[in-house]
What we know:
mainly alpha; 77% helix
Amino acid sequence: MAEQRLNARVRLQQAAVQLFRDRGFDGVTAAEIAARAGVTERTFFRHFTDKREVLFDGQAILVEALTLSIADAPEYMGPIDTLFRAFRSVTQLLEDNRSFSKPRQEVISATPALHERELMKLAALSDALATALKARGVPDLQAALAARAGMAAFANATLAWLEDEAQGLRARLDSNEEALRSLF
């Protein structure tokens, strides 16, 4: 049963992204997504609160993986080292999901109404990173600044990698970390 539920969720996400790419985000309804995925509209709403959430669903998994990595980092590591260790810990997860993430990002980039939602999700992720850093004893201001700067570098690396995978995600993270450090 759980596998069927997961399969329906994945089918809904794939159907949504394809429809959004073909007809634009605003030109697609939840009922059409459900029909394309071969499920009922009720099933759609069991999985997602609205059609926007189809695109932003993986946030909880990412937050959990990053915050666990931060908590497990050696005590001697500073905030930036800890963050980039965490970012590197999720590269396989992101690489495994690239076939969904790339078209997902294309839909978000092409839809101004989704930009605000993406910024809210990034801010929430930054807040979670700051909280995880504070739990390691990093003072509030430093934790907040490190999380926001680190998140900006992580997002920049990920977006660049989604646009062109020739340079791998780890290499992009390395160059963004180096660029961030060079500012200081």
